[in-house]
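Support reply, case 0932

Customer input (verbatim):
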Amino acid sequence: MAKARLIEKIGYGFGDMSTSTFWKVFSYYLPIFYSNIFGLSLIDAGVLVLVTRIWDAVSDPMMGVIADRTNTKWGKYRPYLLWVAPFFSISGILLFTTPDWEYGAKLIWAYMTYILMMTVYTCVNVPYGAMLGVMTDDTNEKTVFSSFRMFFAYGGSFIALFIWEPLTDAFGGYMTTGGWFWAMVCVSSACFVMFIISFLLTKEHLKGVSTVSVGRDFKSLLENRPWWILIGAALCSNLFNTVRGATTAYFFLDIIGPNVHMSLFGIAFLFYSGLFLGIGEVANMAGVALCVPIASTLGKKTSFILVNAALIVFSVAFFFVPSSPSGYWTMLILQIVISVLTGIMSPLIWSMYADVSDYAELKFRTASTGLIFSSASMAQKFGGAISGAAVLWLLSGFGYITDSALLASGVAQPESALLALRWLMSFIPASVSLLSIVIVWFYPLNSEHILEINEELRKIRSIE
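Our regenerated output:
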């Protein structure tokens, strides 16, 4: 088929601009929201974000199967951008609502709203991801689509993270429940509009038809060796990003401090977590732009391994940076380098999922694109949950103090908790990258194999 139009790639990008805006706020700020604003203990908050993932193990593949068997004039997966968008925005607002109830009732509310948010996220993100498998049959074009997706995703994340703290301040304060609620109302409204734009600008071109039962779909998935390997790699990637992201707000609160200023060309500016994370998102976008030429030259598997090797080196270096004016600049430089590298890796993973989907269609004669991409969503959410819970539990184990009144009285965070924060920004994510290299080493779908698969599929597919 001919190359997809630029407007379709832009439209596809708007979809992840919406979901990523939500996801980054949840991943990076939800732990500190639950522990320091909503009022949950570190242990309860950690259990919450981990236990609720049990439902995702059911809902994600269920949504993939449903999407694979949806047939409308708009296609299989694209309609969900329109249908689910309003519920997506409403559930996000409810998640950041803090009722004035006693502790047990608030804990129940937190469970209900978190499960609701993740369920709605599944209903839109699984079909959206699966669209990549039906918008083009060219493996290089899939990488281009993935790059547009991640470029827009990081752009939305940058805006959300950069303005999050100023938004909460504008609506009552960073440490107030009202500030977080109204900030999320603003973000949710923007996300709704972006989903509608994505729906209007995209189109499905490939029409794969599954010739097997749902049971056979699942059986073929479990027999799909490249899928198992990629799930492990994607889980590690999300662990890396979310451990660092979820730790950042705590790191700036307790190690950097709330009123640290830096200067550039004589202009002073506040060095805060939103700036640190936001600059990282811009650097991610630069990495996305590098993904296509690097992957085209080295291949997806080799690129993935080399990127993770570099992440190990720069993550370990972060531990040795002092908390000083010159150290703050070094931290920012390392954040930029690390984020460029993770920006290269993100489109690779999504493009590799599309390749795994093609492999499954040829080998098992099942058009289970939605089911396969549902596993990507599940890996993303499990990675976020495991890392979020790990951060909270580790801080609790090392004596981290969440009582703002106690801290205001002059009690300092114990040295053990501060050391844990430094490990969470350095050695722990580095070890995750090392594990990722080991896993991807066994990934069998190299460039030559994918080209052979695409040639065979062209003979059996219906293409508009």
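We compared this against your earlier run and they match. Two observations from our side: Residues 216 and 346 are 30 Å apart (CA to CA). The radius of gyration is 22 Å. Please reopen the case if you see a mismatch on your end.
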